[in-house]
Amino acid sequence: MSRTVPEIQTSMVVATLGRSHELEGLFNSLVGQDRDDFEVIVVDQNDDDRLAPVLMAFAGKLEIIHLRTDKRGVCRARNLGAARARGRWLIFPDDDCWYPTDFLSRVDALRAAHPADFYCGRPTDTTGRTIMGDFATEPMPIERPTIWTTLIEWMLVVKKPAFDEAGGFDIAIGPGSGTPWGAYEIQDLALKLLATDRHGWYDPAFTGHHPEDRGDQTTPAAVAKMRVYSSGLGYVMRKHGYRFVDYLPRLLRPLAGVAIYTFAGKPGMARRSWNIVAGRWFGWRAAPRTMTATRAKAS
């Protein structure tokens, strides 16, 4: 390393598979940060050395730890990286996201204004437009009723002791897990944090950037992906003790979409909506009842 690294305060754990140059955008945004008391832990799940040129190019600019693993799954990789982290705080960037230059300073401001154990912000494009789902427009505590509109994995900032006490990410959930539960690993983690009496805070003014998927959402591959992601919702909600009455609207909304799109002459979107219903129903039915936690009155 050509630079003197201060005491590490934050560890950024980047799980990556099948990508290489995409990490350059993330790394460039980290080089541009207005502070350098952080490390980047790259958990490399590739079978080849495709990352070598990228890591070498930034070796003198960032404090990078390169971990290799033959175990697939984004949550396995995140947990592996977190176990090696030296920072008091953990962040889990996607390998193709990037952050504003004052991102870490804004974390400091959040901690000063709203002391908590974990934080999250809003995903946006470079114009500030919300992407990747519906997110709350006002700052608020992250609680059981609000976790569905206040969380996304690559904007999470969490105390390492809190992450460890909660058991980290559930390796049975998320991309590459080898299970039907393809998403909602961040909500699962937040619910475990809340169950250990940890507190979270969301601020929509705390933002980061990510490429937006503008592809055809009605292709067989896209529909299959949506079904697997939808299964994760049912699994997580039942695992953490949400009542069926709280879950029912999440079945009825896409079911209504089937009818609306059918009558509108959009069979592709109707098929997509039906697979969301099927995935959510499967996820709820298949979640082990023995995992059910304290019942919640609201979703």
UniProtKB/TrEMBL annotation:
Domain of life: Bacteria
Annotated transmembrane regions: none
SUPFAM superfamilies, per the entry: Nucleotide-diphospho-sugar transferases
Residues spanning the signal sequence: none
Biological source species: Mesorhizobium hungaricum
Pfam families with a match to the protein in the record: Glycos_transf_2 (PF00535)
Coiled-coil zones: none
Name this protein carries in UniProt: Glycosyltransferase 2-like domain-containing protein
Domain Glycosyltransferase 2-like: 11-124
InterPro entries: Glyco_trans_2-like (IPR001173), Glycosyltransf_2 (IPR050834), Nucleotide-diphossugar_trans (IPR029044)
